[in-house]
Records
---
Amino acid sequence: MNSHKLLVSTLVLGLGLLAGGCSAEKPVKPVSFQKDVQPLLKAACAECHTAPNTEGYQKSGLAVTTYEELMKGTKLGPVIVPGQSLNSSLNRLAEGRPGVDPSIQMPHGKVKLPEAQLALLRQWVDQGAKNN
Ligand code: HEC
């Protein structure tokens, strides 16, 4: 009788913790490179970052029209560190984080991307920057 009561209260406590845990966690949906990221980069960046004749490509070596080019980065190396948007210069420049010279904020000479798109880029990088 007592042990039954104990079992019930343990169950109730367990369920409560489970429910609390779930509601506290923010649902993050997987971001797709092909469906989400690539169209965004095409619209916002490709006019200047397409090989071989655009200004951004010629100055930096960065082309964004394929996954392979994007991951290769600039002449100096990668602009994306998979899993680490905090350390990825693509995210730093697009967000115009403190320390980023306004002259190289991207898109170059234009208004910043809307926060929803910046968040999408961040999540994609943090989820491993996959070609998904
Ligand atoms: C209007 C043209 C233009 C657009 C649009 C543009 N860029 Fe650029 N981008 C440039 C130019 C020009 C440079 C070279 C800047 C320099 O070195 O002075 C550059 C350089 C870069 C670099 C390398 C910076 C460095 O020197 O380390 C990155 C990363 C970059 N762009 C990302 C982006 C992303 C991401 C977008 C879209 C959100 C974008 N760019 C949109 C023109 C553009």
Note: Residues 81 and 87 are 6 Å apart (CA to CA).
---
Amino acid sequence: MFHWLEKNPFFFSVGVFVVIAFAGLIEILPNFAEASRPVLGLKPYTVLELAGKEVYKKDHCIACHSQLIRPFKSETDRYGMYSLSGEYAYDRPFLWGSKRTGPDLHRVGNYRTTDWHENHMWDPTSVVPQSIMPAYKHHFTNIADIDTAYAEAFTVKTVFSTPYDVEGGVKLGTLDEAKAAALTEAKVIAADMKNQNVKDAVTRGEIPEIVALIAYMHRLK
Ligand code: HEC
């Protein structure tokens, strides 16, 4: 029936454009809906959490983990409340993922602790004997990039009016202030860890990637 279309490159291209534009609209339109406004009490990411999110992106955790709990009983029983679009309001980009080799991580902050993550990232089989997740030992020596995380926060504040520096919210301030705040946050996490290299680095004022990543994991709830 549509053979004439396949034989006509011009109309075929127009058809393809229309179909893709429609699909694009379907993806974009929900962003303008009320349900996509930030859920009540949602705060923007702190600079340390953003640095952890960078580690998550850089090391491609998304290749095995989703961050989107679907409204199925099997998932809500395991992970908790299904995900709402308004929870991702400050996620740029969101990391929903589609590959579910490992568990969903959208609410992992509710049930995993700092020391659990420390053991798990160093050697996943030490806490989950059958685990096929790779170890990420380099997170314990690599230093997190706080400057870039600050630039990211500053950009979304300026371009998308993400509410930093508002009453009762997350303070961003200057780069130096943000670095000091990230270090304060990092110290709390490092205090619960046993890796001496990590503790020493934080005492020196450097933040290893594992600390930022754990801050990010705790934020997912
Ligand atoms: C090759 C696939 C793969 C990659 C890549 C991967 N994971 Fe996993 N992950 C798994 C599997 C499988 C499990 C389940 C077994 C386990 O707990 O180790 C898991 C479990 C987890 C858990 C425990 C979740 C829970 O509910 O118990 C966390 C947290 C986690 N991964 C974080 C990460 C982070 C952070 C990264 C990136 C630095 C990452 N994973 C990369 C496969 C992967």
Note: The radius of gyration is 21 Å.
---
Amino acid sequence: MKYFLASILVFVTIVFAKDSVAMKVFHTYCWGCHHQTAQAFGPSFRKIANKRKRDEIIAQILSPKDMYKKLGYRRNSMPSFNDLNATQINAIVTYILSFKDKK
Ligand code: HEC
């Protein structure tokens, strides 16, 4: 029983720690221009999640200058975030994709 409770605690800590990486990246770097479900200066995460694949989202974050045309934009107003580490990128992309509508 003791071990069972301990492993639940570890699991919950991991899940929340992962979530908070995404929330920190979101609030620090993205929130000024992107909101979860509402259009802001940039498209909402829901809109992005419903039309893009993980690879395209990662590419846009790392190098919007190389991606905006492929994604159908006429100009690029998003800065690149190529100093985020792999953990931060994965966390924010998973967060974005969590807004995909269930079919
Ligand atoms: C200064 C405003 C700004 C910030 C900050 C910003 N974005 Fe953007 N983002 C935009 C704009 C504007 C676009 C539309 C395309 C363009 O301008 O390149 C966009 C496009 C995107 C797209 C592609 C949209 C599509 O059609 O699929 C993704 C993915 C994205 N942003 C993710 C992020 C993430 C993740 C962050 C935070 C790490 C972030 N953006 C921070 C303004 C911003």
Note: The two ends are 39 Å apart (CA to CA).
